[in-house]
Structure to design on (109 residues):
């Protein structure tokens, strides 16, 4: 997943080096996630199950970009990464909606 501009400063300056190291460790294939432990989709090839072009991303298992220890990072295809992050994304979306409603209450049109 691309790094959002507002989060760029949370990543270390050598992020590209770290990312490269994780991709080498993974053999340029998905390392498999809890929901799909046997996934070994190859970077830039069609996904064997979905058929979509695989773009490996580096997942932070604890969702903390500052924690770049190798044990906290996994090379994952889109399916594995999005599935793993689904609950985290849902919580963030709910918080964003609550915050927008709170601001709307403060500044009615």
């Amino acid at each position: 997943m691309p790094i959002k501009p507002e989060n760029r400063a949370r990543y270390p300056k050598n992020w590209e080096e770290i990312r490269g190291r994780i991709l080498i460790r993974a053999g340029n294939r998905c390392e498999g996630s809890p929901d799909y432990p046997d996934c070994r989709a190859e970077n830039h090839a069609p996904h064997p199950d979905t058929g979509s072009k695989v773009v490996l991303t580096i997942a932070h298992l604890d969702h903390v970009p500052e924690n770049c220890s190798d044990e906290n990072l996994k090379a994952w295809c889109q399916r594995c990464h999005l599935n793993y992050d689904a609950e985290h994304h849902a919580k963030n979306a709910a918080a964003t909606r609550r915050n927008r409603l709170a601001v709307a209450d403060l500044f009615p049109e």
Observations:
- Strands lie at 57-60, 73-76.
- The first strand starts at residue 57 and ends at 60.
